[in-house]
Amino acid sequence: MKRNSLKYIAAVATVIIGLSSCSSDDDGGVVDSVDFSGTFAQEDQMGRPGINTVLGGSVKNSFNVTIPSEQGAAFQQSFLDQAVALHAAFGAEYETNILGLDATTLTTILASDVLQVAPNAPTTYYDGTNILTGRNLTDDVIDISLILLFGGQDGNRFNGQDDGNGGTLPILVTDGVDASGETPSAMFPYLEAPHSM
Q: What's the burial of 162, exposed, middle or buried (CB within 10 Å: 0-12/13-18/19+)?
């Protein structure tokens, strides 16, 4: 998933660079106008990657083409139902998460796919103190989202531990992709050097 996120970032960066570098004059000036005529259709949401994948269920495609201002009313209940069903599938009930949010409150927040920005707080998806104040390039948004959904009060609920019935709980609080060694560039478009395979 992280590699796909980087692909999306690269695609957006390419479009932005392309639009900003186009000019009718040779002095590298500002674009006078951009032609947005034609028919456009929204295909995806990326404010909070992974949320629709986990909670969207049968409404994933509808969620992707709905504008954020209409998403909460349209999808909060189905997101709540899906969150409850995912926990029930493992014989558990949703447990208030590390932010103190119950299932209804959390899915109300997540049902509108927007990325909040707090100009007077550190930019982070979650750093232990600040919550959804933006998104750093080094934030592991998938793991943070999974912890908020499945981690319970200590963030470690579904982490392969004993389930109390002689079995083990699945690992649902991480995607298993280690983010160590990720070093985004300090310059736009902030992409790091390609990894060798």
A: exposed
Q: How many CB atoms lie within 10 A of CB 13?
A: 14
Q: How far is CA 107 from CA 17, 19, 56, 189, in A?
A: 35, 36, 11, 32
| Residue 120 CA: distances (Å) to CA of 129, 131, 133, 144 | 14, 13, 9, 22
**What tokens were used for 69?**
């201002």
pLDDT at 12: 47
Please state whether the predicted TM-score (pTM) of the whole model is above 0.70: yes
CA–CA separation, 23 vs 197, rounded Å?
38
pLDDT 10s digits, 108-123: 999 999 888 889 999 9
Max intra-chain CA distance, the chain: 73
